[in-house]
User: Fold these one by one.
Assistant:
Number 1:
Amino acid sequence: MPKPIIRIVNLTKKFGNLTAVDHLNLEIEEGEILGLLGPNGAGKTTTLLMLTTVLRPTEGTAFVGPYDVTQEPDKARTLVGMAFQDPKVLWVSTPWDILNWHAKVCGIPSNEREKRLRWVLEEVGLWNERRKSVHTFSGGMRKRIEVAKILVQRPKIAIIDEPTTQIDIVGKHRIWNMIRSLRDEGSTILLATNELYEADVLSDRVAIIHRGKLLVCDNPKKLKDSIPGGDVIEVVLGKDVSKKCLEEVERMNRVVDVLSTKPNHLKIYLNKAEEVLPQITEFFLKMRIPIKSVQMSEPTLDDVFAHYTGLTIEEAEKR
Ligand SMILES: Nc1ncnc2c1ncn2[C@@H]1O[C@H](COP(=O)(O)OP(=O)(O)OP(=O)(O)O)[C@@H](O)[C@H]1O
Ligand SMILES: [Mg+2]
């Protein structure tokens, strides 16, 4: 049985009337990458900030290693490194100075420091810019420095808030690989993301949160397999469908569930999609409802989210 290195117990944070994190219970196992996935405002950053003792819980607590973050925050902090969602760097500094100072503070011996800095700066693609003032940097470049801090530090527990927002696709893959190697070298990684693909490819387990509450936590494959029916057919129609129409689709053989995120947009969860598809298109033809597009796919983490909330992540972000 893998042992938890972080134990979140009834963790709650209120800002006035708003409950940003709502009695969250979750265990993060030593040596895993756990992705906290949720739409904007789900409570991801607030959770991470409580674990790193930046924010104090309103109720409940978390244990980081053996330390209760509310009782022994100084000790808890010795085990963690955090990359913040919005990097705050001193504008006149250079990547080299920022990382060198960070390495010093983290107690990395001077003989090791230079080698490690060079390796990390090359990996995040900032070696040639290492002596440039960061005020000339793009948002993505500043984000790379923030993530580089963690890679220099190699903490026992790395907490990374949105590892690759604003970073281009090549940079994303490099950072994902570096996070994986950090895990392989023995760190436990807790990261927050609202990118489905990032959560899926990077996490050993994904915890989906919405409105401060944990919906489900498991490995990405099991989460997708838990969706009723093994396939998804997405149909966009030329006009809105009635409730009666929806019910008829629901009653079709092999159809397990139908989610109508917009009145003309159906997600049909079913088995053996290829066998049912002709029946579905015939049905809409008969009803004189034009089909604008049809797409067959395997379930994604978005479907898992939609299964629990009735909304896609994109829609949840708009509310
Ligand atoms: N310091 C604060 N004061 C008041 N409300 C706050 C504060 N920090 C966060 N919130 C609110 O708490 C909720 C959760 O915010 P949080 O930043 O944890 O979300 P998130 O899941 O990280 O979202 P995102 O994907 O946008 O980063 C939001 O409604 C936010 O407005
Ligand atoms: Mg956030």
Number 2:
Amino acid sequence: MAVAKATWIRAWAAVMLLMLFVPGALAESSPPVVHFTLGSSTQGRVIEGVRIGSGPRKLALIGNTHGGPEANTYELVKQLATYFEAHPGDVPAGIRLDIVPTINPDGLALGTRQNANGVDLNRNMDTSADSCPENDWQHVVEGAYGIVSPTGGPYPESEVESRIVRDFLLDANAVVFFHSNAGVVFPACDHQPSITLAKIFADGAHYSFIPKWNKYAITGGMHDWAGGLGIAAITPELVTGDQPEYEQNLGGVQALLKVGAPLLPSPQEHREGGLPVQPVIWRAWKTWGAQALFGQPLEPPRRTADGWSQLFERARFEYRPAQSDSTSVVQLALLGRDSVGRAAPAVSADPNARFFSETGHNLAAPFADYWQTNGGLPMFGLPLTEAETSAESDPPRLRQVFERGVLEQGSNGHIALLPLGRQLWAQGDMHTPTSGVQAR
Ligand SMILES: [Zn+2]
């Protein structure tokens, strides 16, 4: 009995330690107001924001998805940022408020609803993870006034702006996407935490709550993408097309802050292949390509010096809470680089290939499409070799090493990440945790 009790106390102490360190890590070191940059638009305009507060739950306000025609939402979110910068004490201790006035600066500058590639960013997300198949991504999309247009993009999350939203929100608890001008507030499809927040916001802003947008189908919408990953997401549509409606929306945001952290849902643990997956890492795995790209987890998540890490068959995912104000809060580990060490300079330059002067290598033509459509540079990193025929496989296969993985072309032309995670796991050096506490 004494032994069992001691074990129980140790387990309890470990849990308390985790509770102390995990949510507090950001809070202890962060000043209340931080300006940040998330990346650049298609035409190279900076996408930036400000974070107010340093609590563990991230509530994001995102304006101006629809560029010029909805410039009033840009004005609104800018004014909200100014207000909360001047009144950081309005953000409760449990929350940090991340405010991004525009994620479509090209559309804003060009006066278009779409981005500079002619893609509607609110039709470009992969919405297949939620329980509403009718909203799944389509190339041809519906819009106001019965307009049907091929503006969903060539594939889900084809646009750099969509990928910025996706990667920035991986660790979010809740998000508000401001649009105009239908005068309603609606939640992510069939997602109860989103429904609850939409009602609270609508009450605070004196807008009308509707449970579902029903004028036309919104396919590939940001709110439904978020809801599918367990992020509470709401879309307020301002009443007018030209006024920021600042007082109303400040009331809506204040209402969300007042109900506070308890209603901002935490990322949930999921089990895949019989193993628990760290909640934020699960979102990245799920939305970046899941089983098809990365395979199944091989181990439970493990604690690292700066966050969490988890090994999958074809990649290792790393989650660093301190990088929350960026698009790299989750990244693939540098398994490709580790597998070859520093690569030698390029021997030849293919005039048709994209050349990276940083490493002196080309993005080899057979891998270029796969590399680009599955996330490009942030996902796979720079090429460290040219495409080479591997002698290790029989028949020999074409391979190219990138910083975060190795791409290989199968005999049927099919391209996949080499199972470097499985190789590491088989070598056994990943089996025993080297530091810290292993997660459940
Ligand atoms: Zn809109």
